[in-house]
TrEMBL record:
Stored Gene3D superfamilies: Tetratricopeptide repeat domain
Keywords: Repeat, TPR repeat
Annotated source species: Cladocopium goreaui
UniProt protein name: Kinesin light chain
InterPro entries hit by this protein: TPR-like_helical_dom_sf, TPR_rpt
Native organism taxonomy: Eukaryota, Sar, Alveolata, Dinophyceae, Suessiales
Family matches, as Pfam families: TPR_10, TPR_8
SUPFAM superfamilies: TPR-like (SSF48452)
């Protein structure tokens, strides 16, 4: 269900009304069919997926209270005590934790976001049924980067790339979501190297992001086109700033600053969406700057 302005009532009331009815239907199935019946387990999955989808819609509308309540409902439903014999439970729990990570990051609560990302990773590392380890690694890397742990962030991005390359080998046909995450992974690698003052290595990663985007994305969707265009803008701006830096070193003047942001992958809607702007070190700075909000040349938002 997608909420629109034409629906009667605010989205939080609509969603909570549906979730209440859905929960009642689950209880009826449990009483009539038993805990292990396929229909009962299917209704559990439908409920958790719906709560996650609705929470994302609430977040996109700025209704964070309703979003959190829905995610907490999904988290409670995936407790082991509720469905101990349901194998898909852990997959649904990982989905919910990833969205809780996105929620807390959007609210500026980095520690809480990190905790849910780590819980999600623990699930995905222990259960092969987990479906989006690459996305979790990417998001965890962004969160680590915002706390200054850039080396660890690079490690997480490398893990994401390994998962994505394995996925490509297993299924050679082009998958849009996998291709988008590959582009994001290479771009975020560039960002981390830039912050570590490893400009040459960073440029290689940026070139790789553009190559993958051109080869696998093209103009497949407006989102893909926007992603590719923004990365090209970053490349042009970076080359200009590096030229200014070289000139400033020759003539002892001050070069213009260059600031970029990582791309944070929202779990549910498969969009690259920076829930909060992230300021990185200036490429030609000699010291770490205090974080401040800005509109970056690399801000990537697909609305």
């Amino acid at each position: 269900m997608v909420w629109s302005e034409d629906r009667a009532g605010p989205p939080n009331l609509i969603f909570h009304g549906f979730s209440r009815v859905h929960r009642q239907a689950i209880s009826v199935r449990q009483q009539l069919l038993g805990d292990d019946h396929e229909e009962f387990l299917r209704s559990i999955e439908s409920y958790v997926v719906s709560c996650n989808n609705w929470s994302v819609q609430c977040m996109s509308k700025g209704n964070f209270t309703a979003a959190l309540e829905l995610l907490k409902k999904a988290e409670a439903m995936t407790e082991a005590d509720n469905v101990p014999n349901y194998q898909r439970r852990v997959v649904l729990r990982a989905v919910t934790f990833n969205n809780l990570c996105c929620y807390y990051r959007s609210r500026g609560k980095q520690n809480a976001a990190l905790q849910f990302a780590e819980q999600c990773l623990r699930i995905e590392q222990h259960y092969k049924e987990a479906e989006n380890a690459a996305r979790t690694y990417l998001n965890y890397g962004v969160l680590l980067s915002t706390t200054g742990r850039n080396g660890e962030a690079l490690e997480q991005i490398e893990k994401a790339l390994a998962v994505l390359h394995d996925r490509e080998r297993e299924s050679p046909e082009v998958n849009l979501e996998t291709s988008q995450m590959l582009v994001v992974a290479h771009y975020n690698t560039f960002v981390e190297h830039l912050r570590l003052k490893q400009n040459a290595t960073g440029m290689q990663a940026l070139q790789k992001a553009l190559q993958v985007a051109g080869r696998k994305l093209g103009e497949s969707t407006s989102q893909s086109s926007n992603l590719t265009q923004k990365i090209k803008e970053v490349q042009i701006e970076l080359e200009k700033r590096l030229e200014q830096k070289a000139a400033s070193e020759r003539f002892r003047t001050t070069a213009g600053s260059f600031e970029v942001s990582q791309i944070f992958m929202h779990f549910q809607d498969s969009q690259a969406h920076p829930w909060r702007k992230v300021t990185l070190d200036e490429a030609d700075a000699d010291r770490v700057q205090e974080p401040r909000e800005l509109t970056s040349v690399a801000e990537m938002c697909f609305d």
